[in-house]
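New to this. Help decode both lines:
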Amino acid sequence: MSGIIYDARLIKAMEGLQMLGEYAGEEQSFIDELWSGLIMDSEMMTEFVYYLDNHCILDRVKVQGYGLSDMYFHLMWQYNVMHDLGKNNSDCDKERIMLHAFADVMAMKKEPEKYISRFDDRGLDKFI
């Protein structure tokens, strides 16, 4: 037994993702896909574990200068535009938006042009 190293962080991260996903009302397929992406991307896994532990992000992963916080606020802005409220109410589930921010940043790492144009179209880069 002395040669076995057991790291429970990934199990805790998987359980945390499952709980957040269920709380946010996400489909199991979305949760599974997000988990697969996190497993393959150690930087994003580090961000996610930090988020689970601290309920805030490190925001260290950047794609052409944009990171998790940018994606989170972009998704929040989209929610507000679609609901035409201009503010966040109780229907706006921030945990759900954060999970989608993680998924979108991982997708942005694969196809930066597709996602960066969304920020540029809004002029978000002018506020940073």
In short: The helical segments are 9-23, 28-40, 42-54, 68-83, 94-110, 112-122. Confidence is low (pLDDT under 50) at residues 124-128. Residues 15 and 21 are 10 Å apart (CA to CA).
